[in-house]
Amino acid sequence: MRDLEKLNQSITEFYDKMSSWEQSVVKETGYSLAQTHTIEVLGVHGALRMKQLAKKLGITTGTLTVQVDKLVNLGLIIRCPHPEDRRVIVVKLTDAGEQIHRQHNQLHLDLMHDITGDISPEQVLMLTGFLDTMNQAF
Fold first, then answer.
1. Cα–Cα distance between 132 and 31 in angstroms, integer?
2. Which residues have C-beta within 8 Å of that of residue 44, sequence separation ≥ 6?
């Protein structure tokens, strides 16, 4: 059990540091953390139905609707009909939203480069596998 306690401490410390970094980076953009995360998910996955997007963000569709309204008003997201089912609305990034995603994603990539500098490529692959497995448990 001691190993799990150490793992818990390490993950908690990493989460705290990552959250602090993320908040400081997002603070400079003028967008909220929730807005940035919404842009990030759409940037990675492309156009999504509201229910899909809410699930990926871990929030309710009601909360997401308010968030999307704000991003639509900022010109970063648009609502459009699903290409195969006109009854369904999908949301996707505008060109301005894509640009914000690229900039934010580059900051993440720069951070990953910095914090994995002392880790071998094989260890990076192992860590990625471990995190993928753990993420599936959620």
1. 28
2. none
Tens-place pLDDT, residues 110-122: 999 999 999 999 9
Contacts 24+ apart (CB under 8 A), 24-30: 25/104, 25/107, 26/104, 29/100, 29/104
Per residue in 77-91, pLDDT tens?
999 988 888 888 899
Residue 114 identity: D
What domains lie within the chain, and their CATH numbers? 2-136 (1.10.10.10)
pTM score of the predicted model:
0.84
Longest Cα separation, the chain: 54
CA angle at 101 for the pair 100 and 102, rounded to the nearest 5°: 90
Contact partners, residue 124, CB within 8 Å, separation at least 6: 116
d(CA 119, CA 138): 26
